[in-house]
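User: Teach me something about this protein's shape.
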Amino acid sequence: MRLSSYNNGGYLVDIFDDGTKIRTKVSEDKPVYPESMDVKITNFCVGPSCQFCHEGSNIDGEHSQLLDYLNIFQQLPKGAEIAIGGGNPLSHPQLDEFLQSLKNFGLIPNITVNQYHLDKNSIKRLQDWQENGMIYGVGISYLNKADKLPLNNVVYHVIAGVHKYEVLRDLAEENVLVLGYKQLRRGATYYSRSVENKKLEWYRHIRDYLGSQRLSFDNLAIEQLRLYRFLSAEKWAELYMGNDGEFTMYLDLVNGEYAKSSTSNVRHKITCSIKDMFGVIKNEK
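Assistant: First, the predicted structure itself:
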């Protein structure tokens, strides 16, 4: 079922309830708004204190003043996607009100949580949000094999360089997003020969899983694994969804900054106009 259809500059964007996005070019005009925004709402995290966390989240991390930024999201076209993360986003005291506002704006929120934080109560919250149309997709940072979750549109996140490539066997029946290794903050100190060896194994074996599993990749994983080596130029042009900052952007609401992506060292202070911020992103070299 189609959730939304909207025009964005020279593009028509259709979003479906299974997570499918179809972008159709109708003119040479550039996009005016980001189709999706990666939004960090907190740097607070109690739990495994992941040694490779590129955000550096921990028990001393701060929450954002989340509701102060609603005017930015209200400017987006109905159907734009919001990928909410942290830290542990479930810990943010304003999250329910924020999600309700995004729903009222006609946006499509998705949320990423660490598997460690999934207990009976948090799963019930996620279920309720899905039933009420307040979130659609649930990304789960994978730790270990567990029982099937009573949630819709679940995507397990694994990191090439942290997880061994064999993790795909455990997730053979699941939707999986493969992330590239981010050598930032704790990810920089965790980085080692072992990380590189795991990335090399992913590079060597990923072809065995392409086409046989429901896999997607972030742009960093695409580059690190050089997935374009398996496709013709024509097929690549058909499947590739664009460079960072071309149709997407990153918001760090904790520090009040925006960038092309969470890995970008070029950060700007958030202003009141999403069009202006996205224009800055698009014009960066």
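Now, about its shape. DSSP finds nine helices and 13 strands in the chain. The mean pLDDT is 95. If you'd like, I can walk through any region in more detail.
User: That's plenty for now, thanks!
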